[in-house]
Design goal:
By secondary structure, the chain is an alpha/beta fold. It contains ten helices and twelve strands. The mean pLDDT is 97.
């Protein structure tokens, strides 16, 4: 096979190896590819691997040799699935490789907002503790998680593990999920979306981006949340209305927003969330621990190998 990786740098900036993939055919790896470079770079490709480079119907129709697309991620909205199916192009993804890392980032954001570690480390660098008249120093509220309610929107592998970690902290766990109450583990209470909004001291999003979930957090739903509640988004940026969240932070309606995703990535320099009070945004790195990327690479290679052997796995467009 002629295999082309369109945007390999994010997965492998140099600390991993493409060995294994190069055993399956002639391999070309590009660190990044712009939209107008895709056809030229892939005109001889039998297989394409992409993370964020979009492969739409027009592009696929221009690549007569293409028979396989491997998405280097769990979400596969960068590929026109219907067009791939019509052209008999197999599309695969890499499910659940980053669950532990995303759960870890979710709680990094929660703990940052409740304990303000970064804030106090910065205060110490400017001598605030050294000048304190007391043995301790704080100038923000500090919050204990035990006894608080966490609301989880979506109970897939990530949401379910967030629930288990939250219970270890002593939190009450409410969830909005399609799963039946009878199959939920003890300690997780199923509720309606309105029930989730009204009950949550911390609301964390772990659902896919669909027409139904786009901007589910907006000025109307924020008004139904507990005043001062914390909001966390490590799923997809467009699950929230960014201006509505920034406005709610500015007027104190939300107590904090921790996010690893934005509607546009990278965000515009004037995005209101980058300067909103109590907004803490990390640059889409929850998935990027070395451990998670090693898993991603391993499964991506296995996906190509299985396709080459005639029994593809992790296919998303059957």
């Amino acid at each position: 096979m002629n295999i082309v990786v369109l945007d390999g740098y994010s997965l492998n900036p140099g600390d991993l190896s493409w060995h294994g993939l190069d055993q399956e055919g002639e391999l070309t790896v590009y660190p990044r590819t712009s939209a107008d470079e895709v056809i030229e770079r892939c005109v001889e490709a039998d297989a394409i691997l992409t993370n964020k480079v979009v492969l739409d119907a027009a592009i696929m129709n221009s690549l007569p040799r293409l028979k396989y697309i491997g998405v280097l991620a769990t979400g596969y909205n960068v590929v026109d699935i219907a067009a791939a199916r019509a052209l008999d192009i197999v599309v695969t993804n890499v499910p659940a490789y980053s669950t532990d890392s995303v759960v870890q980032m979710t709680f990094a954001h929660i703990l940052n907002m409740t304990n303000r570690i970064g804030h106090y480390a910065g205060q110490n660098r400017t001598g605030q503790w050294s000048r304190s008249e007391d043995f301790c120093y704080w100038n923000t509220p500090l919050t204990e998680l035990s006894g608080k309610t966490i609301g989880i929107y979506g109970l897939g592998s990530i949401g379910m593990k967030v629930a288990r970690v939250a219970m270890a902290f002593g939190m009450d766990v409410f969830a909005f999920t399609s799963k039946a109450s009878s199959v939920l583990p003890a300690g997780i209470q199923k509720t309606t979306f309105d029930g989730l909004l009204g009950a949550s001291d911390v609301l964390t999003l772990h659902c896919p981006l669909t027409a139904d979930t786009r901007a589910i957090i907006n000025s109307d739903t924020i008004a139904r949340m507990k005043p001062g509640a914390l909001l966390v988004n490590t799923a997809r940026g467009p699950l929230i209305d960014e201006k509505a969240v920034a406005d709610a932070l500015a007027d104190g309606r939300l107590g904090g927003y921790g996010a690893d995703v934005m509607c546009d990535e990278p965000p515009a320099a004037d995005n209101p969330l980058l300067s909103a009070p109590n907004a803490f945004v990390t640059p889409h790195i929850a998935w990027a621990t070395r451990e998670a990327r090693v898993r991603l690479m391993s499964v991506a290679v296995d996906n190509v190998r299985a396709f080459a052997a005639g029994h593809p796995v992790n296919v998303v467009n059957r």
